[in-house]
Specification:
Helix content: under 10%
Low-confidence stretches: none
Distance between the termini: 22 Å
Structural class: mainly beta
Mean pLDDT: 87
Number of strands: 6
Number of helices: 0
Strand content: 15-25%
Bound molecules: FE2/S2 (inorganic) cluster
Order of helices and strands: EEEEEE
Shape: elongated
Number of domains: 1
Largest sheet: 2 strands, antiparallel
Strand order of the largest sheet: 1-2
């Protein structure tokens, strides 16, 4: 099972200094959806910095593809 989730953020959420784990140091939470170490940021959000503002994209093996349309099982379209 898998699901499509839309993420609009292009940067991590840095947690408060008092919440930082001494073992992991500067912990940031992924908000872009691309991290291989989710929920923690691994820097993959850098791939989103040059995305055009007017598009929706999917990433597969580091390659970006523009989504033209999404059609659900009931054949309704979502943009
Ligand atoms: S915010 Fe997602 S990898 Fe950094």
């Amino acid at each position: 099972m898998s699901r499509l989730i839309r993420h609009d953020e292009r940067s991590p959420l840095r947690i408060d200094e008092e919440d930082i784990n001494e073992r992991y140091g500067d912990v940031a939470i992924c908000r872009c959806g691309l991290s291989e170490t989710f929920p923690f940021c691994d820097g993959s959000h850098r791939n989103t910095h040059d995305e055009p503002d007017d598009g929706v994209f999917v990433y597969e093996n580091g390659d970006r593809q523009r989504v033209e349309r999404i059609v659900t099982a009931d054949e309704s379209e979502n943009g």
